[in-house]
Amino acid sequence: MERLGTLFVQLPPRFTIAELPKLAAFLAGLPRELHYAVEVRDASLVGAPAVDELLGERGVDLVVMDTRGIHASTSLRFADVRGRKPALPVAMRALADRPFVRFVPHEDLEHDRPLLEPWARTVASWIAAGKQPYFFMHAPDDTFAPENAYAFHAMVRAHAAVGDLPPWPGTPRQLGLF
Questions:
Q1: What CATH number is associated with residue 122?
Q2: C-alpha distance from residue 160 to each of 61, 97, 142, 155 (Å)
Q3: Is residue 146 included in any domain, yes or no?
Q4: Environment class of 164 (CB within 10 Å of its CB; exposed 0-12, middle 13-18, buried 19+)
Q5: Model confidence pLDDT, tens digit, residues 12-34
Q6: How confident is the model over 30-46, as pLDDT tens digits?
Q7: CA gap 154, 174 in Å, rounded
Q8: pTM score, two decimals?
Q9: Contact assessment for residue 129 and residue 87, using Cβ atoms and an 8 Å cutoff
Q10: Which of 45, 86, 121, 160 has its CB 3.0 to 4.6 Å from that of 40, i.e. a possible disulfide?
Q11: What's the structural domain count of the chain?
């Protein structure tokens, strides 16, 4: 159990404020020695004081879902994904000791740099405050997920002493036609 990170609980898209007692009962039944983060998918729950209070008093973090990157994409290939990912307001905040960010990027990471740099500073500030943040970045085409992770780590490393990653094991991407 010492290697087990934060357990991620995703609420259904139609879970509303009226159903918070169900969430409270669910959280009350979970083992206290583990760490949890809850992802809301209804915009009315983001920043709702009742949600923050419920999670905060139990030491549960809110999963901050940032889908601005994928929603900025115009690729027809990812239209279905954009339809499934809610476009929620983004609040860079932590309710407990293990902030959890779920970032769904644009298919071109360079497009996301203006979105990622503030996250890098925020993650670095959480680390400086003694928190253990999780930054989960995935994409509809996770082929580039490792490269995205290395790029984000470098951004955070510019603001905090987070160490180095092992050398990139992948081969360089094709830069030309020949």
A1: 3.20.20.410
A2: 22, 17, 26, 9
A3: yes
A4: exposed
A5: 989 999 999 999 999 999 998 99
A6: 998 999 999 999 888 98
A7: 22
A8: 0.86
A9: no
A10: 45
A11: 1
HSE-CB at 12 with a 13 A cutoff on CA atoms is 5
Backbone phi and psi for residue 27, each to the nearest 5 degrees, phi listed first = -65, -35
Which helix (H) or strand (E) element contains residue 4? Answer: none
User: In 85-128, which residue ranges form alpha helices assigned H by DSSP?
Assistant: 109-128
- Token pair recorded at residue 142: 């996770």
Residue in the structure block whose two tokens are 């009315």: 44
Q: How far apart are the C-alpha atoms of 43 and 130, rounded to whole Å?
A: 29
- Does the residue 127 lie in any domain? yes
The 10s digit of each residue's pLDDT in 111-135 is 899 999 999 999 999 999 999 999 9
Per the domain annotation, does 116 fall within a domain? yes
What is the span of the domain harbouring residue 99? Answer: 7-22+43-157
